Amino acid sequence: MGEDLRFALLGPVRAWRGEDELELGPPQQRAMLAVLLLRNGAPAAAEELIGAIWGDDLPRTAAGMVRSYVSRLRQVLVAADAEDPIRLGAGGYALSVEDTAVDARRFLRGLTSAREAQLAGDTATEADTLRRALELWQGTPLAGLSGSFADLERTRLMQLRLGATEDLAAAEIELGRYAETVDTLTAVVAEHPFRERPRELLMHALYRSGRQADALALFRDTRALLDEQLGIDPGPALQAMHTRILAVDPTLVVPDPAGRPGVPAQLPADLPDFVGRSEALHQVVDTLRTAGRSNPVVGIVGLGGVGKTALAVRAAHDVAEAFPDGQVLVEPETAAGPLDILARLLRSVGVGDDALPASLAERSALWRSLTTGRRMLILLDDVRDGASVRHVLPGSGGSAVLLTARRRLVETAGVHWLTLDPLTADETWTLLEQVVGRDRIRAEPEAAQRIVRATAGLPQVVRALGFRVASRPRWSLATAGDRIIGPRPATAENRPECAAIELPYADAMGRLPADLARAFRLLAVPETPDFRVSRAAAALDVSEDDAEDLLEALADAHLIESDRDGRYRYLHPVRVFARGRALTDDGPAECQAVLRRWHAHDAGATCTVR
To answer: For residue 34, which of 61, 7, 64, 74 has the smallest C-alpha distance?
Structure first.
């Protein structure tokens, strides 16, 4: 086999020669390739391939179809000057592939290496090896394939991934990386509520983070859940962790042998399907790299769901090596205010609770003193007010601050602001391919374009709708589009992807004053691509000056867009949300009144309430 061939099974089944992706044919042909790759070079008899591809639902010509699929795979995989990698022997068909060419085999080799590092007591190497192994995953393994073979292999691989995630969390706890471990384990516990090891590890991470009460509360919740749902008590490991926390067991907290805190490394994992943003990423990275001559502060603003946090995390990872004294993440919305934020920052650089100053001014001064001359990156996600930034600025000498916010914080001086726009149509298409699968998207380009248009370039919407499509491999793309973006009754049950899409808009609307929230909802009722101030004033029954103030405030909050011609418009997902909330919050009568005033202003407009 040519050394430039590589294969992916930890997601949709895919193959590349160099940088060119290969067309692998229909699902049955990709299922055969998956079987051969997972055999690790061992032969697979024709009967085994037939069973794996079709199960009990065998076509009459199954044997001939197997030979046909093998022939087609050879045509795809074999370059003009390369040896045929598929061989037929006494035991059946075998595919000769180097382990390094298959992501699933690299993942399994990583687990073995991590185990060896664990036995050798090298926790740092264990964590690094597990992290690199888990980064190979691109979604659900063997996505798009059905049948008992695919289901069994998918379950096996996902169980190995879950175990690796738990092992990595245990290693990260020992290395002092508590904050990111708490986030990871919280997600695992939510997805696997009856699995006890993640809960045990989460209790440990919470305790080491100084959150003893939260750790004990987690045990109480676990005990209640297991009793109510399964009628059992927590297992020995969970109970032992509970007892050790109650006893303040000193072995639960391992102090640094030199008496110094570890270097904080709190960045969340990068998104494997990050798409586009090359110009914005270049701008953010270049500004952050000026740290040393100054302490740059970079702010990314935009509509909720447009990808601000994803861009910030990607940029932070790209420059992490330039900040050897640590990278710290703070989410101000989870803190009580600047006083609490500073407490978290000070703990990250080794200040114990008993040494925390009481006042905001003293904590801010101590933070500047401890960070002066250090090269640290501080990531503030979803900042809501300027005070959260002013008080946490580090001391001079090489640090940088990267923040995301819904609006520009005009009360904070010296920030390099970047407004993040939605993805382009081409970038949206690429992201949809990564989530759903390239073959499936390109098989129905018109239906895919419809979904691309409906998402308006918002990555959160693309992923939410894409995951829904990917979870239904038997749907055609056109059917999937009708089901997820077509008209729905007002009484229809809210689907999971709807909640994921609407959450940032509901949060943003909840922060608005009442008159601004009302304008946001009601101006979405008329179906029109865009509108001017005069139309908005008529619809809301306010003066044009007041309407312009409302529209500009909504534009500042990135809930609507404006252009140089004085026109305003909603992105499609935002309009759908706002119109729905208008019907529920303001009522059909008020919506009809808006439409009547809109018609009275311009009788040519065609508007309906749906």
So the answer is: 7
